[in-house]
Please model this.
Amino acid sequence: MRTMVSNQIEAMNGYTKIAPMVSSTLQRLLRVLDMQIEALDEGMNTIVDQHYKNEADNLTSIPGIAQKTCVTLIACIGNIERFESAKALVAFSGLSPGVIESGTSVRGHGSLCKNGTAAIRSQLFMCALSASRWNKPCKELYKRLIAKGKSKKSALIAIAHKLVRQIFAILKYNMAFQQ
Model:
C-alpha cells in the first residue's frame, strides 16, 4: 500500500491543477503507513529478540544475512526440526531446480521450481548479492560459476541455494557461522 500511495503522489506531481486536499490527504496517508510499518517492524524485532535470540544471532553471523532477512526466515521456517534435510528446506524455499521433460524426445532448459515460499526466495536472492562479496564459500562459488560461463543471475541463484544450506546447518546444529 505504501508503494501504491507513493506512486500516486509522484504521478500527481506532474499535474498543475491538482486539488490541494487530494495531495495533502495522500501525504497524511503516506505518513500513517510509514508509522504502521515502523511499528510492525519494531514488534517483529521484539518478538525475535524475546523468543528467538539465539537463532537470530546465529543467522546474522552468516555474511549476507541481515536482521530483516533473519526475521523473515524465522517467521517462515519455524521449527527447523520439521525439515529432514537441507534439500527439503531448499524445496520449501522455492530454490530447487526443475527439469522439463516429456518422454524421450522433448527436453527443455531447467529452471527454478518456484513451488516454495516466495518471501524466502526473494529475500535470499537479495542476500546473495551481498554474500557473493563477503561470504567466502559463496564468493568462491560465484567466481567458479562465472568462470564456467554461467550468467550472473544463475550464479546468484546458486548462491541463494548455498545460503539455504548454510542456514539449515546453522539452525540444525545451533551454532554460529564459521568461514
